[in-house]
Amino acid sequence: MEIRFLGHACLSIESKGKHLIVDPFISGNELAKHIDIDSLEADYILITHAHQDHVLDVERIAERTGATIVSNFEIVEYYTKKGFKGHPMNFGGSWEFDFGLLHYLQAQHSSVFADGTYGGNPGSFVLEGESKNIYIAGDTALSMDMKLIPLFTKLDLAVLPIGDNFTMGIKQALMAAEFVNCNRVLAYHYDTFGYIVLDKELAKSSFNLKDKELILLEVGDYIEA
Ligand code: NI
Ligand code: MN
């Protein structure tokens, strides 16, 4: 499974030959100016919650690609009413897609669209792909619910917010990695705005001290899960 960091909380993932985009926020991100949003491939768009820094480019990408939007019931309803394709889920639910088995789980945060429309409960995803399993935490606080994840899947990679203020910071992201029992972490949701500037040296050394790998990608770079 190939994962590309597109800045902030946006990822593109290739799994079983299908292309997924998670939480598209590119055109509004100064740090992602070199990403050509109109050449990104998408069969699916996964959305964790309705905040603008996670959905800004959903319609632009979905209009061009015809991608199916996967999120909570309320967010999918918001887009299907506008004529887009959607697959609604809710907490505890799993679905065998053609890109892998997807679980939709809780996140401790809030969720509302920029126009004030209710965005349901904020969520996170666990994707069991071809041979690797990843957790995409979304915007969230540290939560005891994270301890449930290793009871049903063995993670190869955890994608965790680390920028603090709106989500977990370094210390709690490190605890989250322990809660989900995963030693390989891709950090996201940092540096985009003033409130979430990350001390990268401190972040890296904090994880290293606990024998965990913290991956900080340049916008546009790839890793294998
Ligand atoms: Ni948010
Ligand atoms: Mn956010």
- The assigned structural class equals alpha/beta
Strand content: 25-35%
Biggest sheet, spatial arrangement of strands: 6-5-4-3-2-1-14
The Cα radius of gyration reads 16 Å
Number of strands: 14
Shape: globular
Oligomeric state as shown:
single chain
CA(first)-CA(last) distance:
5 Å
> What are the secondary-structure elements, in order, as H or E?
EEEEHHEHEEEEEHEHEHEE
Number of helical segments with 4 or more residues: 6
Topology:
Blueprint: E1 2-5, E2 11-15, E3 18-22, E4 44-46, H1 52-55, H2 58-65, E5 68-72, H3 73-80, E6 85-89, E7 94-97, E8 100-106, E9 123-128, E10 133-136, H4 149-152, E11 157-161, H5 170-179, E12 184-188, H6 200-209, E13 213-215, E14 222-224
Parallel strand pairs: 3-4, 4-5, 5-6, 10-11, 11-12, 12-13
Antiparallel strand pairs: 1-2, 1-14, 2-3, 7-8, 8-9, 9-10
Bound molecules: nickel (II) ion and manganese (II) ion (MN).
Nickel (II) ion (NI) binds at residues 49, 51, 109, 139.
